[in-house]
Write a structure and sequence with these properties.
This protein is an all-beta fold. It is built from 4 helices and 42 strands. The protein has one domain: Maltoporin, Chain A, CATH 2.40.170.
């Protein structure tokens, strides 16, 4: 007879652990089933690359409560704009690393429990749907990736891991309000289900927002950046055997925002589902499948007449994909990973152009297409005493097909009917690294890699207008390719102190940029390259109940352009700072208490590719305090931008947007 002891772990992946029950039970054999809800264990090669971990404590103790605020603690992390997910247009929330710039599309691969989270049409990340309190940690690996879904990891990989039952507890809820009357509400219920566990969680953020327009520039049509969004997630984990577990997750979200002018409303929503089987026996495996249904809508208001000029009323898209990864038993000093993954992105745009003077419809547009990628990958790690060697290669078969753009005039007559030729091809990418442990907590590492990113459906087929600038799509865009290398040194003589420095040189070839062709006219084009060289540094110190963390990135980035892009040759890529960094200090005077301060700095950057509109540097200060007032009850106080820094997030020829002003939050947390 077997006796099953169930353990829930939210921090480290575990495997089958045999135990004996004592002399009186010698005929019984006890088996411990460890249900983690995680993927396979971290590979020995991970430390060979520039990797940074964001702990749960950091995730849940930011001044804003937003996940993008926590990610800002990573050296080199960057969104397209400085706005957070309450006051930015959702389609502008791309994530990248190492100052490679961009055009609002993510150049970094963002995974939630192994599932790519980028919008199938636009490529942006739905940050408002990713609640920090649901997560155990985030692992950020900078540099091109060649493992699962590596075709999206041009600048690196950001892996979000959901928390398990041990971390979440049975029940946790928070209710906070700020000095503008806005609210943030979240709740999580977790419970054992047989030999597994289930988690149900929800979050709702709403508020009137703040004025993004400076006081002197406001007009009667100017309004606050109001927001109203929710996300709900259900997750279940169950053992199929003593070494195999089933993980299922469903996510729904909806996010409504108003930006700058009355009626300038946007909507993003999604429904995601994934199923994953993880095996931790002698033959380890990770099998994953997912489906995503997303939509986006947006209304553009004229900045001169303050009436609608564009109604992007519907942008439905679907993402399908999955992966199979196998780790055969190859010995204690060797780890082999082989597998394949598949991604399919399909979507269409439906929008209506409106005359600002007459209010009449001038055009109705419909555009879309289908992108697919099938990748085969193999990676091997070898442990040779103090030396770890790793190498991997990836082969991708991509297709760009069924692309079209159609336009009708106001009377319904067909004026444009473009059908673009299907394209397909093969791409290879690789990464290799070495880690040498010098002893005493010191180690040296070096790595080289390449990466790949397909243009999104948005970049290929959707033109847009940010008055008075028109940006054209380009169905002929080629894939972006990255080549780079890095060297680094880490020193961690104890658990209480660590420091790391990385020097890197990355070159994104055929980088997609919004290239200025004429006054008020741009087009998405492949430029020769974006060259980014720099240094990243991180440090952590713990003494007693106090911890200090700091990160700093300096990047010398330049666009390489010729032909129509010659004017931007040598310029710093748009939205790319030279300096970015931050530091935080946290004090835990008691188990249920936490007091922390953090500072974030972003250097000067340019709004545009021609360096005509400069965004000044900005330094912000945030704070968080959690004070226990009884069993399972705590008071929470948060502050964001406490110095009330004027953070310029957009400057389009003098038309300026500002980021969040000083904001104070207070509320209560219940947990048991």
């Amino acid at each position: 007879m077997n006796r099953y002891l169930v353990t829930y772990a939210g921090i480290a992946a575990a495997s089958l652990i045999p135990q004996t029950l004592g002399a009186q039970e010698t005929e019984d054999e006890a088996t411990v089933i460890v249900v983690t809800g995680e993927g396979l264990e971290e590979t020995p090669s991970e430390p060979a690359y520039a990797t940074q971990i964001i702990s749960r404590e950091t995730l849940v103790s930011t001044g804003s409560g937003r996940i993008e605020d926590a990610l800002a603690a990573v050296a080199g992390f960057q969104q397209f704009r400085r706005s957070d997910s309450r006051s930015a247009n959702p389609s502008a929330q791309g994530a990248t690393l190492r100052a490679l710039g961009g055009n609002a599309t993510s150049r970094a691969l963002v995974l939630l429990d192994g599932v790519p989270m980028a919008d199938p049409f636009f490529g942006y990340i739905p940050f408002s749907a990713l609640a920090p309190e649901r997560l155990q940690q985030i692992r950020v690996t900078r540099g091109g990736g060649s493992g699962p879904f590596g075709a999206g990891a041009l600048a690196g990989t950001i892996e979000l891991e959901s928390a398990g039952l041990e971390t979440l507890g049975t029940f946790d809820a928070q209710l906070l309000a700020n000095d503008r009357g806005e609210t943030e509400t979240s709740a999580t219920l977790a419970a054992p289900l047989g030999a597994g566990f289930g988690v149900v969680s929800g979050r709702w953020d709403r508020g009137q927002g703040f004025f993004t327009t400076p006081v002197g520039d406001r007009v009667p049509a100017s309004v606050r950046a109001g927001f109203d969004g929710y996300s709900a997630q259900i997750r279940g984990v169950a053992p199929l055997s003593d070494t195999v577990e089933l993980q299922a997750r469903g996510l729904v979200y909806r996010d409504e925002r108003t930006l700058r002018f009355e009626g300038a409303d946007s909507l993003s929503e999604g429904q995601d589902a994934s199923l994953r089987i993880v095996g931790r026996g002698a033959w380890q495996f990770d099998v994953l499948g997912y489906v995503q249904a997303r939509n986006f809508a947006n209304r553009v208001i004229s900045s001169t007449r303050f009436v609608p000029v564009l109604d992007q009323r519907n942008t439905p898209s679907t993402g399908l994909g999955g992966k199979i990864e196998l780790r055969p038993p190859t010995g204690e000093r060797n780890l082999l990973r082989v597998g394949l993954d598949y991604r399919r992105s399909e979507g269409e745009l439906y929008e209506t152009a409106i005359n600002a003077f007459s209010g009449q419809v001038t055009a109705r547009r419909n555009a879309g297409g289908v992108n697919t990628d099938l990748g085969l990958f193999v990676e091997n790690d070898v442990l040779l005493g103090a030396l770890t060697l790793t190498g991997g290669v990836r082969l991708d078969r991509f297709t760009i097909r069924e692309g079209f753009f159609a336009e009708l005039d106001g009377s319904g007559g067909l004026t444009v009917d473009d059908r673009f030729p299907d394209r397909a091809g093969w791409e290879t990418s690789f990464r290799a690294g070495a880690l040498y442990r010098l002893g005493g907590g010191a180690r040296f590492r070096a790595a080289a890699y390449s990466g790949l990113r397909l243009p999104t459906l948005n970049e290929l087929y959707r033109p847009f207008v940010v008055f008075p600038v028109v940006t054209q799509a380009n169905a002929a865009l080629e894939n972006e390719r990255l080549e780079g290398f890095e060297i680094g040194f880490d020193y961690a003589p104890s658990e209480d102190f660590s420091v790391g420095v990385t020097a890197f040189d990355n070159r994104a070839k055929d980088a997609i940029a919004n290239v200025t062709l004429a006054q008020n006219l741009r087009q998405r084009r492949n430029i020769d390259a974006i060259q980014a060289r720099g240094i990243e540094a991180e440090a952590a110190l713990r003494f007693g109940r106090v911890t200090l963390d700091a990160a700093l990135a300096f990047t010398d980035a330049a666009a390489k352009g010729s032909g129509t892009a010659l004017a931007l040759d040598g310029n710093r890529p748009a939205q790319t700072p030279r300096w970015a960094g931050g530091a935080s200090v946290a004090w835990r005077p008691a188990t249920d208490w936490l007091l922390s301060l953090n500072v974030r700095h972003v250097g000067a950057q340019f709004e545009d590719d021609l360096e005509q509109n400069r965004l000044p540097p900005a330094t912000t200060l945030g704070a968080f305090a959690q004070v226990s007032v009884g069993s399972g009850v705590a008071l929470i106080v948060r502050g964001e931008n406490l110095t009330d820094e004027a953070v310029v997030t957009r400057d389009q020829a003098g038309s300026i947007d500002l980021g969040a002003p000083r904001t104070l939050w207070a509320g209560v947390r219940l947990g048991f």
